[in-house]
Amino acid sequence: MSLLDVEGLSIDYAGEFAVNKLSFSVARGESVGLVGESGSGKTQTALAILGLLPSNANVSGSVKPGGIEVLGAREAQLDSLRARRVAMVFQDPALALNPYVRVGRQLQRILIQHKLARGAQAKARVIDMLGRVGLPDAERQYSAYPHELSGGMRQRAMIAAALIAEPELLIADEPTTALDVTVQAQILELLEELREDTALLLITHDLGIVAGHCERMLVLEHGRLVEAGVTRDVFASPQNGYTERLIAAAPRLDCPDIPAPAVGNKVFAIDAASVSYKERGRGLLRAVREVDLTVRSGETIAVVGESGSGKSSLVRAALGLVPMQAGRVSLCGEALSGLAQNRTMAVRRGMQLVFQDPVGSLNPQMPVKNIVAEPLAVHEPGLARSERREAVARILNQVGLDASYLERFPHELSGGQAQRVAIARALILQPKVLVCDEAVAALDGTVRKQILGVLRQAQEDSGLAIIFITHDLSVVRSISHRVAVMYMGAVVELADNVAIFRRPRHPYTRALLDAVPIPDPQNAGGRASLAGEIPSALAPPQGCAFHPRCRHAQEQCTLEMPPLQELDGTAVRCFRADEIECGVTPE
Amino acid sequence: MSARTRFWASLRSSRTAAVSGGALAVIALIAIIGPLISPHDYLQTDFSKILHAPSIANMQIFGTDDLGRDLFVRTMRGAQVTILVAVVASVVSLLIGVLYGMVAGFIGGRVDAVMMRLVDTLYALPFIFFVILLMVVFERSLLLIFVAIGAVNWLDMARIVRGQTLSLREREFVQAARLTGVSPLRIIIRHIAPNLLGVVIVYVTLTIPQAILLESFLSFLGLGIQEPQTSLGALVDAGVNQMEGASWMLLIPAALLALILMCFNFLGDALRDVFDSRRFR
């Protein structure tokens, strides 16, 4: 018997279809993945199942969780359905929990609302549930406010809230997108473990997650169901071209090695850089501790780390956007002064930045042609108008945009197009170093692949050096020649691409690799080999910053910080690097 | 289509904005043309016609006041002055406030701290006391009223613009410009100011009624416009004295004042709705 029946569901907003004649069902205890790129109607479908669509949505068809028709149902009917039969875990736990109510109270209210328990009994049940989702010291977390929990802990609390009324169906809408990779792996494992006979509808853009956690999968494209089937079969032989493209675009760790770069001169060097921030009333936050990094022309180096690892602070300091406490930065052998505004125009011209949020990095009031032309106007004021126009058209062409984009405004661009414009703006000055700060993190898989292609092409054309900052190791596999892994402000491992992926030396690198979800149901990865989360940088652990989460830690690790030592061409910051086995990834 | 043109297009399609804006235009037009075509003059007293009730005969549709002056012409004259004071004062506050707030917000740090403490200090001064002092020390004039109202209104504007500038300054497109070496002046002109426009427009429409109220309030207290000049506030003040015998002297200017205030408020609300709809961010 099926638990959820969706029949011919269509949702449109003033004639624009978000979901178009969608039909599927979910059986008891089953886990189903709903995949698609942004704008494919995944979230709209989830909201329809819970009766949460906004009033301006035109809905038709039929949605029956547990045999009850949701479309057109009264609020009271929906109330008895939600939480009790169908529960939802949202993407951002920081937004889904009420910041003014203690976590325990929020869960307790669900029990009381549905008359499942009350008083001391309800409290006991909530504490038990919080313990089951892995909140340490559940008794204490019961009376904590959401902001007192870390992102991962908040999502655990959210899952506890969803499961406490023992629903038959759990809908998880991108439950881990806002989290770090190692935490993502923990949360997904937790979902798997706890749901028992609860059915799961997992909504995600990440095919790796579907491969690892769903028995069946549904693929949506522009609101239409283009493919449905058993996950294993769909991955083995996708019937639809779109599905095929999605699978091909999903990042993998086993893609072919990239050719060694035509290594040129050392262009850019960071030497013993330290960055710290004064946090009022909370002491000194040491974001970056004595990091060395060099890039050669024609080379891409990736700086990888989870949030709080200091990767962004490092490059921002190098670019002169934030002050550096100690250390030196040099471009083509010339030492640079601290902040960007004190640097010469030639230096500024030599280093450009591409941001994570493509739309936010473009002035909403300027048309594309002015956005791209501005750096030229500043650096080459003598240029004739026609020459400037030509240069803009040429660079846009290089990033794959034709002349029809010249007059457009940022809001008229898709994420991928906006990022191309941002890259064009950075490249028009022909910089020596391009820094990409999570430049593809906000983009869909297929678009991501294109953007990486644009960057690679630019590098081949001009011998550009690229510093690529990311939290996601899988992105790095196909683009970077060398990889630096950062943890709590320090580089823990620095090696070339092949070495990092085939023979990681640091336990943290190993854990990051384990956590990457692989789009292959036979070998899905996404394992949580690491417990806990990154400690606060305000109170870093003594000794090796990684030791509280490390399986291999011994006494020495808790006492002193290990130096960065050389081991077969890999620089690694671990006392036991030569004895522990971090595992060799098969070729 | 730029965000700005869409802003105006969307505003035109808003019914509230159309009705209130249209009503304001009509009022302004009548206020300007009315006195020109009327046979009466706003200064001319006629002791044979003291406190005549409104009548079509003799073209005195609003009646006359206690000195026999035609109330229609005087009300229109008053509306002219009131709107003029409000608009000029708002423009003054706009210019000072936007510049001041933008500079404080953009430079930040110590400069910002000092500049904003100055604003706080001015806020702390009791406004009425300040105006009375001004009026006593200097000769009363229209100019002085512009100064008095503008001096108060720009403080709010400066605070709002500074807040917006602070957040714009951290936006990535500003950082990108800074990194490229775009000069601070150019950043302000090309990146900050255009993005402030929406907030500023909305806020100006909301300060105009405030300025109108202030002017009326001052005139009502006898601190504003002096006889024989007049404004809606002064007319209401005169009307209150004749309330029992000649209620039209109070009701007509008071109603017009209320109507103008309402129109500006609705227009401001409509603007804010258009702006807040996030389509322009």
Topology at a glance:
The complex is a heterodimer of chains A (about 575) and B (about 280).
Chain A: E1 2-13, E2 16-27, E3 31-35, H1 42-49, E4 58-65, H2 75-81, E5 86-89, H3 93-96, H4 103-113, H5 119-132, H6 138-142, H7 151-163, E6 169-173, H8 181-195, E7 199-204, H9 207-213, E8 216-221, E9 224-230, H10 231-236, H11 241-249, E10 266-279, E11 283-296, E12 300-304, H12 311-319, E13 326-331, E14 334-335, H13 345-350, E15 351-354, H14 368-379, H15 385-398, H16 415-427, E16 433-437, H17 445-462, E17 465-470, H18 473-476, E18 482-487, E19 490-496, H19 497-502, H20 507-515, H21 555-559, E20 565-567, E21 570-572
Parallel strand pairs in A: 3-7, 3-8, 5-6, 6-7, 12-17, 12-18, 15-16, 16-17
Antiparallel strand pairs in A: 1-2, 1-4, 8-9, 10-11, 10-13, 13-14, 18-19, 19-21, 20-21
Helix pairs in contact in A: 4-5, 5-7, 7-8, 8-20, 11-17, 14-15, 14-16, 15-16, 16-17
Chain B: H1 3-12, H2 15-37, H3 71-107, H4 109-124, H5 127-137, H6 142-169, H7 172-180, H8 184-220, H9 232-241, H10 248-276
Mean pLDDT of chain A: 88
> How many angstroms does the end-to-end distance of chain A come to?
44 Å
Residues in β-strands, percent of chain A? 15-25%
Shape of chain A: globular
Mean pLDDT of chain B: 82
Examine the coordinates and then state which fold CATH places here, giving the name of the CATH topology of one domain in chain A.
Rossmann fold
CATH class of chain B: Mainly Alpha
Tally of helical segments of chain B: 10
Rg of chain A, nearest Å: 25 Å
CATH architecture identity of one domain in chain A? 3-Layer(aba) Sandwich
Q: How many extended strands of chain A? A: 21
Q: How much helicity do the residues of chain A have?
A: 25-40%
User: How much beta of chain B, percentage-wise?
Assistant: under 5%
Helix/strand order of chain B: HHHHHHHHHH
Largest sheet: spatial strand order of chain A: 15-16-17-12-18-19-21-20
Could you name the CATH homologous superfamily of one domain in chain A?
Answer: P-loop containing nucleotide triphosphate hydrolases
Molecular shape of chain B: elongated
| Assigned CATH superfamily of chain B | MetI-like
Number of H- or I-type helical stretches of chain A? 21
